[in-house]
Amino acid sequence: MSTTQPRRHSTVKDVQDTSYSNTTDNTGDLSTSKALVIVAIIFGISLLTLGLLYRQFPELEEHEKQYLKLPWDLEEAKHLGLVLDRYKDKYFYEVLMGVFLVYIFLQTFAIPGSIFLSILSGFLFPFYLALLLVCCCSAIGASLCFFLSNLLGKRIVRKFFPEKAAQWSIALAKHKNNLLNYIIFLRVTPFLPNWFINMSAPVIGVPLVPFALGTFIGVAPPSFVAIQAGQTLHTLTSTSDAWSWTSITVLTVFAFVSLIPVLLQQKLKDKFE
């Protein structure tokens, strides 16, 4: 007598496993230990570059040296801003390059604190220069983080955030023809933290070009708010002071605008099918 095997229903887990199996791993032949060594070397070279930059900076007053460090809160950003503002006119390009490299360093290694550099940029530089600086640093740093994730981040995301990465992979499959607009939408809205997007993108197969371009465009609206707040840095008491109903409305409008091409394309597709 033959037995009939029960039909196996597909589950979200199956979809997740399929989404991962469809993602090519270009570093499959590279062991985790080797990937870790490479990332450590890149990190060391980056620190050495920042150290050389520090040595090129003009001699500071003794009481100012304690403030020349990565800002971890708004008070530290205020003190750093006052120090850099004192030297900005005479050493403009040194200050600009310093902010540029430190911002990219934070983005590349997914280190918190870039929001304070965005506010600081608004305090130190003209508005449009600060906006261009932040957008370029975000795109370059995110792209470098993208490459590092190809080396090591894939293993980290798959081990510690498998469900969240798989859910984004499923959502991404629905927008595969509109990846640029989807990345812009993710950058404008706070649904996923930027560091997680940077590390997860190569895991689920996001191409680099729409990822980098979408980052450059998508970080502009929230950076607009942070830079505008930086112009009144001395009056801020917390990063939440940068937000208002006006800024929230602006971000909502930008998020909606980024989805208009997707909605129109879907509407035309439904009409002709």
Describe this structure as you would to a colleague.
This protein has one domain. Helices cover 70% and strands 0% of the residues. The protein has helices at residues 12-21, 32-56, 74-88, 92-108, 114-124, 127-160, 162-174, 179-188, 194-200, 208-218, 220-230, 245-272. Helix 1 crosses helix 7.
Describe the main β-sheet briefly.
none
Q: What is the helix tally?
A: 12
Give the count of structural domains. Answer: 1
Query: Which stretches are low in confidence, meaning pLDDT under 50 for 5 or more residues running?
Result: 1-27
Count of individual beta strands: 0
The rounded distance between the terminal residues' Cα atoms is 48 Å
Shape: globular
Specify the helix fraction band: over 70%
Order of helices and strands: HHHHHHHHHHHH
Portion in beta strands: under 5%
Q: For the CA atoms, what is the radius of gyration?
A: 22 Å
Q: pLDDT average, as an integer?
A: 77
- Which structural class is indicated by helix and strand composition? mainly alpha
Domain VTT: 111-231
Biased composition (Basic residues): 1-10
Membrane topology: Multi-pass membrane protein
Protein name: VTT domain-containing protein
